[in-house]
Amino acid sequence: MPLALLALAIGAFGIGTTEFVIMGVLPEVAGDFGVSIPTAGWLVSGYALGVVFGAPLLTVLGTKVSRKKMLMFLMGLFVLGNTLSALAPTFGLMLAGRIVASLAHGAFFGIGSVVAANLVAPEKKASAISLMFTGLTVANIVGVPLGTYIGQAAGWRVTFAGVASLGIVGLLGVAKLVPEMGRPESADIRVEFAAFRNVQVWLAMAMTVLGYGGVFAAITYITPMMTDIAGYSSGAVTWLLVLFGAGMFLGNLVGGRFADRALMPMLFTALGALSLALLLFTATAHDKVLAAITLTLIGALGFATVPPLQKWVLDQASAAPTLASAANIGAFNLGNALAAWLGGVVIAAGLGYTSPNWVGALLSGTALLLSFLAAALDRRTRPTGRVVAQAAPAEQVPATACH
Question: What is the pTM of this model?
Fold first, then answer.
């Protein structure tokens, strides 16, 4: 695989770390600024909303410059946001720093997916995408636990300064390793928006919202579930999240490999197994060993859906994939926000800390039904040539260009 994928993975590692590490140092941040934990929670939700809105906005703006230059700009924005967070004298400026950093998130993964896929042969596109997302999954194994430890031992400001340093490394890597490929072919933004006339693009984003949202319904409330139900100590939750991250890492690689061979069967399998695992989690959460195993499986199955879903969007929006790809990244975060809210609703209703697992299973099961619908529509329209699906590469660009 090209070394340029390493630069993209480093950027993804930094983004994944800053997205999730805040959950590990939230009490310290709240204490320093003298705000409540729920108020400090805006640092999480504000980031997610920034991703949702920033992904399409910055991707649209990025159609006027080369993808390499846009990736460099996004990493610069990421560095600026995390530096502001590290130095913020007030909670409001800390929140502003989080939002600035989040604006780079969706566009980086959206444009990076297009770059990664075009770096390799058509039959290896999903694998290339999964290698870029490996940085995000490794962040949950290494970056988030390490950042949490540093934040608790040396202060949360040191953590965010370290994340900003990762962004600088990613920026230099993109500048050095990613080839220059010129502006996107569909520089006319009307062409990019035309991709959304395809119902398959909307189906893919709906599958993303519901499928990965099912994972976040459970993981958002994993601490009270593991401490109050499974009987773990609060300190052990960090290592349980390492297991979850390890599952994400393996699932992402497997999902990318098999999506290149049989995209929709891989998606059917991952979503069906994820729904079942979330259902089982309501029972296995009462046992320490079974809870740890199930949590790892949920991470693996949840992220096994990422490469096939992202590639499906690229295939369906092959004439103008950049905006659709970035919008799908925003859909992941929309799913996170939706699932976290629904999980809180059922807990507040008195159904217990395992009830979000039922919500997650319902969301993922609905995504599975949508995947059946998408496959049926694809089979029906493919002979007429109205849907390009997997018959064409994600974008017609020179062989030296990136996904």
Answer: 0.72
